[in-house]
Amino acid sequence: MENIVWRKAETDMELKKAEERAEGRKKSVDLIIPVYRPGKSFKELLKRIREQDYPIRRIIIMNTEKQFWKPEYEENFEKKGTQETEMEVHHLSREEFDHGGTRDRGIRLSDADVCILMTHDAVPADRKLVGNLIKALESGPDIAAAYARQLPFEDCSLMEKYTRAFNYPAESRIKSAADLEELGIKTFFCSNVCAAYDTAIYRSLGGFIKKTIFNEDMIYAAKAVENGYRIAYAADARVFHSHNYTAVEQLHRNFDLAVSQADHPEVFSGIRSEGEGIRLVRRTAAFLVRQGKWMLLPKLAVHSGFKYAGYLLGKQYKRLPRSLVLWLTMNKNYWN
Prior knowledge:
The protein is α/β, with parallel strands linked by helices. The protein contains 13 helices and nine strands. Strands 1, 2, 3, 4, 5, 6, 7, 8 and 9 form a nine-stranded mixed β-sheet that branches. Helix 5 packs across helix 11, helix 9 packs parallel to helix 12 and helix 11 runs antiparallel to helix 12. The termini are far apart. The relative contact order is 0.13.
């Protein structure tokens, strides 16, 4: 009986999408942004969101620590009851924040057709970001999520610029279970730096995992793929987003990434991700040589070594003393 109900729900969802496309009705869109001590790029994000060709109905801010929120961020946004974009701010403590749980809570506050998730340090590259994400979602009734291409900021290091190009190529692609043999773990790749979710499908699948140190987007994408849905990479939906991490910061980040993989063998076991990392290192080295920047090869080696060390330690975190785990992680509150 459960299977019959589930298939009926899927059919109803597909019919609804087909009717919307036939009518040309614009989907309602809410934007959810987890925020913690945002920098100057956050103001630019808000400015460019107001300029989007495809309207955002509401911005839901999930702000960690009220004392770091500036009321000036709410300027130029209308209050409820108007036809303009409104902003809704929810404050939480650092202890309450969770990568999956906080984002899920934000989506549960929305009744929009589509929820777009962004981080506070991502900036729309043009006015068509939202529209192109929606276009990717509407490219098929079984598209559960669509994520944007990430472009480097001007101050981004040369190695990081290549990493962005490697992970976010210029060609769009829709991924499904049929791509697992070719793409491996990248089949599940999706980034909440900027990603749009079909809210009906999101709710039917149970949403993001409620407690995770990292990778809530990939864990959800894996669940969607396993349930017959597809994930769209929309290369024409572009945001600026990059970091110039030190080698030690790379170690911390990859430690948390590997912890999430160790905690979710149902997603990541049997799918090796080391090969993708090795391919990135080799291609980055070749790129640096082509650019005549061979003097950066030692730096590449050091950063790659720290990344791999963090990854290996994260995979084995249950065997490590708690004091070492707390030093290695970027998210200390996760362990409380």
